[in-house]
Amino acid sequence: MGLSRIKGQDAALTHLRSAFESKRLAHAYLFHGPEGVGKESAALEFAAALNCDAGGLEGCGTCPSCRMAAKLAHPDIHLVFPMPRDAKPEEVAEVVAEQVKAGYREGDFGRKAAIISVEVVLDAVVAQANQRPYTGPWKVFVVADADAMTPEASNTLLKTLEEPPEATALILTTARPNTLPATVLSRCQRIQFRRLSHETIEEILLSDKRLGFNKARAKAAALVSLGSAGRAVRSEAEGLVSELGRVADLVAGKRAAGVESLVGEASQIAFRLGRHEQERLLDLMLLWYRDVLLLQELGDGAPAEEILFGRQRRQLEAQARAMDTRAIGDLVMKIDDARRAIERYSNPSIIFTSVLVDMAIARKRSEAAGRRPNAA
Ligand SMILES: [Zn+2]
Fold it and tell me: For labelling, which of 127, 148, 225, 320 has a CA lying 20 to 30 Å from the CA of 250?
């Protein structure tokens, strides 16, 4: 429990701890950085720790205040997050309950845009901020994904940011700080959160029992996470991790010898995935070929931290040797086109299948043409 539960964000935590110890906490913070790296969890742990009966900034996890905070039911800790405009109170409660249960919040409402409306800011922030804390020393407002505030909402929040009542802290989180109004930004102290290493993500996935990962799955999910624990959790939920393995095998020519069975295998993968997962998988394939190109250019000199699929370095190196740069360039353009087409077409599986087959054929062709003359 407490702030030490937040992994891989030492600089941010050190900043908060030293501000607290020297009694120089700001009234408003902006936690910014990529999606799924712990901004919101850190904000909630910080809010809990400020109100912990044991004092200090670790949060004991067992006092009545900490227990209420863990259930997101603390009367002095208020969480605001984007929801579709027509969401009913029970739907909001459902999202909160899910967050308590799973440890993270899913921000996907299908076609409906999620926003933070002026009504929510008035209700959950302005009205509450004007009252004294009920139990704890601090009243804390966490505005998650603050960039989803409507202009009216941020204008309203601005008044509280400009004249914060005593013993009140506001924490805004965002992955897109530059889309917030300058007036809001200027009132907040910015604290940066960073992408997480594969090791840190594995550690997070394994340490939170609510997520239900075993070692092998955590390893695989970390690989496709792009430094975001949130993304790792979603990839696992979508079955993307095992599909990525199958796509890599297919492209590497480990499965399906003839073109006919290649098409069959590719369309099976396409059939199992929805449009959204197909898009994500193509994103990953673009990053995969980015790694291949990087290894072609830099060879053994390519720094390990630059290689996104570091654990598959051998496979990447084999592809870098076998394929010529122009073929990879063509393929990257095809994947990129397919990525765009999938958004628009009514039957994305056909496009997805065809691009998988393109990848496998490009690989076969370059193998048949022999190794690149300048390959090491
Ligand atoms: Zn406590």
Answer: 225
pLDDT tens column, 318-362: 889 888 888 888 888 888 888 888 878 878 888 888 888 888 888
Residues with CB under 5 A from ligand 1 (ion): 52, 54, 60, 63, 66
Distance from C-alpha of 211 to C-alpha of 102, rounded to nearest angstrom: 6
Give the distance (Å) from ligand 1 centre to CA of residue 68.
Answer: 10
Ligand 1 centroid–CA 53 distance in Å is 5
Across the chain, which has 376 residues, the per-10-residue mean pLDDT values are: 86 94 93 94 94 88 93 95 91 88 73 89 93 90 97 96 92 96 96 93 89 80 81 77 69 64 80 79 81 88 76 83 87 87 82 84 74 45
Q: Ligand 1 centroid vs 23 CA: distance in angstroms? A: 19
pTM of the entire predicted model: 0.72
Confirm if 83 and 92 have CB atoms less than 8 A apart: yes
**Beta bridge pairs of residue 173:** 31
The first and second tokens of residue 124, run together, are: 């959950």
